[in-house]
Amino acid sequence: MRCQWLNSRREKLVCAAAALSLLALSTACDGAGDGEVAERGGAAAAGGGEASPSNEPDSSLPDASQLLAESVEALGGADKFEAMKSYYSEAEVDMGSLGVKGTAKMWWKGGDFYGETLLPGFGNTRMGGHGGEIWSEDPINGMRVVTGKEADQTAWSTSVCLPCEWERFFKSATTIAVKQAEGRELAEVELRTKGDHAVVFEIDLKTKLPHAQRFDQVSPLGKMPVRITFEDYRSEGGLTLSYKQTVNAKLTKFSSTITRFDMNVPIDDQRFTKPGAANTVDMAKPDSIATPVEKTAPVEKTAPASTKGDASAGSKKQKP
User: Fold this and answer.
1) Is residue 305 part of a domain?
2) Confidence of residue 306 (pLDDT cuts 50, 70, 90)
């Protein structure tokens, strides 16, 4: 079902909120990844989401740990990522079939993060994490604590280099297939959590750069198969970074394009503090979702920054 076919305001907002939550994970094709799995590979995840629990690793396939290590080197090396203590980014968001374009900003420092997205007609969405606690605010649910599988997904999606620290979030890495797709030879590496949730990481065997990842995102509409492709790689401060992510979530297809990325900028720790009281909402249970309101919650205003090296708002330089 496409979002533009939904009739009620509540259904449209639920659809938009589910899509907006994916902006934090982006971290693009409908359904499963394009192309057929090569004969020497195992079965890929059905429907573009999580793979089924893997059996013993196929010895004919590339070693998963080695592939991830090679991907780290292709991205610039573990030492370069370790040297990144903070970053500030801005992006343009195009919601595709929803006919809406907006902006997104992200602050990250030592694992803590704060992001905000403004989409005209849908209001503001914010998400943050501090000391392991993750919260979110959107026009439907208001302020809430993110828990369970959704919190796990948000945690690994905000890693600055998932191949660098996959062992922090996942219990195992297994190469499940090698396929030809989109003119590339891609290895599919399944990363599985202790809770037995999985994300399939697609690595270009020629460049060793991450090409895509897919998983089942928890949403009020049930499990939502998602595929995110990484495009437009550029060199920045010795790192090779994807400046465009395209998200296909069946409900909608949208893209996020980075327009600014500043590394190792000063960020005030207060930026990551959870604002106000938070309700606990289980995104897998629609009954726990509040009735939508016309007026969105107040969102911290940030004026456009004037210089690349300054992640603060306004003409006067101050801490972001």
Assistant:
1) no
2) very low
Domain that holds residue 205: 3-288
Number of domains in the chain: 1
CA atoms within 13 A on the CB side of 23: 34
Distance CA 21, CA 50 (A): 18
- What's the pTM value of the predicted model, to 2 decimals? 0.71
Around 25, how many Cα atoms within 13 Å sit in the side-chain half-sphere? 26
Query: Quick check: is 295 in a domain?
Result: no
Whether residue 179 has pLDDT greater than 80: yes
Residue 300 falls within a domain, yes or no? no
- pLDDT-derived band at 69, boundaries 50, 70, 90: very high
Compute CA distances 119 → 26, 95, 125, 177, whole Å.
16, 9, 8, 38
Residue 283: how many CB atoms within 10 A of its CB? Answer: 24
CA 293, CA 139: separation in Å to the nearest integer?
7
- Strand segments (E) across 65-170: 86-94, 101-109, 112-119, 123-130, 133-138, 142-146
Q: CATH code at 232?
A: 2.50.20.10
pLDDT, mean of residues 242-266: 90
Q: What pLDDT is recorded for position 120?
A: 86
Cα–Cα distance measured from residue 187 to residue 36, given in angstroms and rounded to the nearest whole number: 12
HSE (CB half, 13 Å, CA atoms) of 180?
4
Q: What's 47's DSSP letter?
A: G
Looking at the chain, how many residues does it have? 320
Condensed to tens digits (0 to 9), the pLDDT of residues 91-100 reads 999 988 778 8
Sorting pLDDT into bands at 50, 70 and 90, what band is 268?
Answer: very high
DSSP type of residue 72: H
